[in-house]
Amino acid sequence: MADMRPLRDELQATLDARRDLGPEYEQALVESFVERLDATIAARVRAELDAHGARPGKQHKSNTSTMVPIALGSLGLSIPLTAIAGSAAGPAGLGMVWLMIIVVNIVAAVAVMRGR
Asked: Can you give the pLDDT of all 116 residues of the chain as single tens digits?
């Protein structure tokens, strides 16, 4: 599994900034972190697809094989993110992390279904 330290540092910096700046900046901080998280996930998915020889426009034999890297990536990211969010941000952090994991998986599933 890739080193999770940069992502942990990003989350910690976001939480520290929220504590320092106050709740009025919470929405902007959350959106900024989610954008960075999305970019990280997208880069990992692209790297996994490149590693398996998948290219845009190339049809896969099975939609299941396309979803495996995404599902594994989601599970791999969910464990440390859940631990970090649970200890640092409580139930609100857990909700945010799991909402984003669900959104990423739904978007991926829709994209795979459209590519059929």
From this structure: 456 678 788 888 888 888 898 888 888 888 888 888 888 888 888 888 888 876 555 554 555 677 788 878 888 888 888 888 888 888 888 888 889 888 888 888 888 887 75
Q: Are 3 and 76 in contact (CB under 8 A)?
A: no
Q: Could you tell me if 81 and 40 are in contact, meaning their C-beta atoms sit under 8 angstroms apart? A: no
Residue 17 near residue 24 (C-beta atoms within 8 A): no
pTM: 0.43
CA distance 44 to 37: 11
What is the identity of the amino acid at 43?
Answer: A
